[in-house]
Amino acid sequence: MPNSFTHKKQQLYLVLSGIFIVNALLAEIIGVKIFSLEPLIGRPDNLTAGVLIWPVVFVTTDIINEYFGKEGVLRISYLTVGLILFAFLVIYATTKLPPAAFWLDVNKTDDAGRPFNIDYAYQSIFRQGLGIIAGSITAFGIGQVLDATVFQLLRRATKGRYVWLRATGSTLLSQLVDSFVVLYVAFYLFGNWSLDQVISVANTNYWYKFAAAILLTPVLYLAHYLIDRYLGQEETVELQQEAAADVSV
């Protein structure tokens, strides 16, 4: 391959990997918050905050799969799992650090003047995140392997046509599994939720992801257009053929 194309290929994988890792890690960290949709839709449905940015991970996964194949997706997925583990180990270590007396003193009341223990709040939030890590990694691993595999199966079945079908189909199936596994492990096995609460939130999470996968289809086509222009027509075809054959990056 020409050196210029090799460089573009590496740069593309680097950028897509960066987007993937940052959003996956952010989703894990902010996923401890459960917020209500009632003010927006008038129904008492709830979502995890982390689910808001998972659609970015979906789209990035499909783009990586399109141009770098299943091996490209799994390589960055395994790296992301390692980085998530590292991040939570660091966070856990910080919850064990003794708080400074002045920090506790200047934050001893909230805005309404009520007693407030900022160190307890810090530990409560981030140690809850540690409970999520087992569920997150389990669901993330299963979901990514399933997504990458189904994407390639649909690609071969359609002979490389219908980008929307393989992208949306693989996402909808993998996230059906992910949505329930992560909450079941994190909040039922390791947490204090009832099974009904798990099913309720997981159901809402999944339908949000379902809608997001459909609505983001134009974004997927836009990304394809921009990448194809960046790489060049012939180079794009060559790279997609490699991806379809699961040739490594």
From TrEMBL:
It comes from the Bacteria. It is a multi-pass membrane protein. GO terms for cellular component: plasma membrane. Coiled coil: none annotated. It holds the Pfam family Vut_1. Its main location: membrane. It is found in: Cell membrane. Keywords: Cell membrane, Membrane, Transmembrane, Transmembrane helix, Transport. The chain crosses the membrane at residues 12-35, 47-64, 76-95, 130-151, 163-187, 207-227. GO terms for molecular function: transmembrane transporter activity. Belongs to the vitamin uptake transporter (VUT/ECF) (TC 2.A.88) family. Q precursor transporter subfamily. Involved in the import of queuosine (Q) precursors, required for Q precursor salvage. This is Probable queuosine precursor transporter.
